[in-house]
What we know:
Blueprint: H1 5-12, H2 16-23, H3 31-44, H4 50-57, E1 62-67, H5 72-75, H6 78-93, E2 97-102, H7 107-118, E3 124-128, H8 134-142, E4 147-150, E5 163-166, H9 168-181, E6 187-190, H10 197-213, E7 222-223, H11 229-240, E8 248-251, H12 254-266, E9 276-279, H13 284-288, E10 294-297, H14 300-320, E11 330-333, E12 336-338
Parallel strand pairs: 1-2, 1-3, 3-4, 4-5, 5-11, 6-7, 6-8, 8-9, 9-10
Antiparallel strand pairs: 10-12
Helix pairs in contact: 1-2, 1-3, 6-14, 9-10, 11-12
Amino acid sequence: MSASIRDVAKLAKVSPSTVSRVLNHSAQISAETIKAVEAAVIKLNYVPNEFARTFATGKVKIIALAIDSTKLESYANNFFNATIFGIERTAHAKQHNLLIINCTDSSEDMENLERLILGKKIAGLILPEALISRNLANKLAQYAFPYVVLGSNDTEYTKQINWVDINNVQAGAYAVRHLYQQGYTRLAFISNCDKEFFNQARLKGFSEECIRHGIRAERNYIKQSVNTLRDARQVLSAWLGSSTRPDAIVCSSDKLAITTLRMAKSLGLLVPRDLGVFCYDNTELTQFYEPAVSCLEIDTYDLGVKAAELLFKQLAKAKSKAKGESKIEHILLDSAVCPRLSTQKIK
């Protein structure tokens, strides 16, 4: 069992509070006491609990990342893991710890978050777009509390907050541009969500790029809120069984992409000759399935880094007590197409 601060105090023959003052380099501690405490620390191999020290002293060296653990599909994935890693690495470089807190839009969770802020237990906050609301944004502004949002939406109040996001309109356009260059001219778009702003942005980019290239993207070949595999099979069966079927389908998730490949195979369609399949998820599933699925490469690690850097920029300004309002920053990150066999150029 590791040594505690009480063990150090007992060996040094001082109180735990004296040990704490020595470790925090407080003034008015005799050289003899400092020497005794340091000797006890070395002998017991004592490692201070940085979180406990921060909470006790009020010297906040912690930033928080809020997530909603009730939405497993949004957070329990490699994409968000990379984002967390980017935030943590940046925080570590700034000699800060990262605290992950569970937070929904319930009044109880919001009160817990407010206690952390008002109690000065965290120095700053990063939270996903799904958790920010006008009420929370107003409260954070009232407290002049530094925070950054992962993602964006089209609400008026988000124009006044700092956020970092993927350029999803551009991502939607990239998918169409790639398929057009491969010779596909009748495109469809299938998604398992419709309310999320990022999906609407991708569809906007998809539609605008289709118009730009004179590509047919008929209304009945755009389907959103396909939330179950059964629904997906019904939609795909109707599309691919039609005499005017699309010759390429853009899928919002890896599951929809694999379902599309399986449906095409069951109908005797060859991918990519008869049907191109493109996906926004670059996962192991899309990479190693046969045929491998062309997808969008999104650097979610960099998303975390940029969000943390933007937060620390706010913290530095607050620490310097610089006058004037902070400049609101909106950062859009680029993405790139990762071409694979599922959209190989039609000969």
